[in-house]
Amino acid sequence: MSEWGFIVAAYLLGSISFGIVVSRAFGLPDPRTIGSGNPGATNVLRSGKKAAAALTLLGDAAKGWLAVWLAQRLGFAPAYVALSMVAVFGGHLYPVFYGFKGGKGVATAFGILLALSPWLGLSVCAAWLLTFAVFRVSSLSALVAAALSPVFAFALFGVGLLSATVLALALALIWRHKSNIRKLLDGTEAGFSKSKTASKPGQ
């Protein structure tokens, strides 16, 4: 497969929304119709099915990991590895299979970073876990982890294309959380322990 063919395949892989696929398999409501309307693991968890949420998280992370791992395994130049990162992430955010309306990209970004470097992925995961342990707010944890990911990338790789791509993904992820940022600023963002409140439409 050519590099460009692989990039197209990475985008199509990213376009598979495991939140929707898993919810259908479990007979659960479409996650786009409940809570925040985001087809991610946090919203699937609001259905009460922890197994479905775990599979969603695993699937969305795995597709990011697989695309980048394969790009490196096939010996692609850094530029094509970077494009593969953007393609699979872009597929998750703007999936062709679901009218270009996708998730916010947290799990997929984690998979991408883990494939790029286990130390990078684990550092970002630790940042998410620490923030969540203190504040119990999933969106805030994602924003802190996203903001720190370019810092960790520059520390590991120095200034270069891959670090710049991590920065671009982080900015895209933060942008996708703009509604959460507004709620955090005005104090209306629901914490994880308030899942019943968070499951109301519009929250």
Verbal overview:
- By secondary structure, the chain is mainly α.
- It has one domain (3-198).
- The chain contains 11 helices and no strands.
- α1 runs parallel beside α5 (78-93), α2 (18-25) packs across α4 and α4 packs antiparallel against α5.
- It starts with a helix and ends in a 5-residue tail after the last helix.
- Residues 194-203 have low confidence and may be disordered.
Write the layout of secondary structure elements.
Blueprint: H1 3-14, H2 18-25, H3 41-45, H4 50-73, H5 78-93, H6 106-116, H7 118-135, H8 138-157, H9 161-176, H10 178-186, H11 195-198
Helix pairs in contact: 1-4, 1-5, 2-4, 4-5, 4-6, 5-9, 6-7, 7-8, 8-9
Summarize the structure.
The protein is mostly helical.
Index terms:
single chain, mainly alpha, 11 helices, 70% helix
* Count of helix runs: 11
CA-based gyration radius: 16 Å
- Report the uncertain regions: 194-203
The SS-based structural class is mainly alpha
Average pLDDT, rounded to a whole number, is: 92
Q: Would you list the SSEs in sequence order as H and E?
A: HHHHHHHHHHH
Q: Count every beta strand, where a strand is a DSSP E run of 2 or more residues.
A: 0
**Approximately how much helix is present in the residues?**
over 70%
Overall spatial form: globular
Largest sheet composition: none
Number of domains: 1
What kind of assembly state do the chains in view correspond to? single chain
Question: Ends: how far apart?
Answer: 44 Å
* SS strand fraction: under 5%
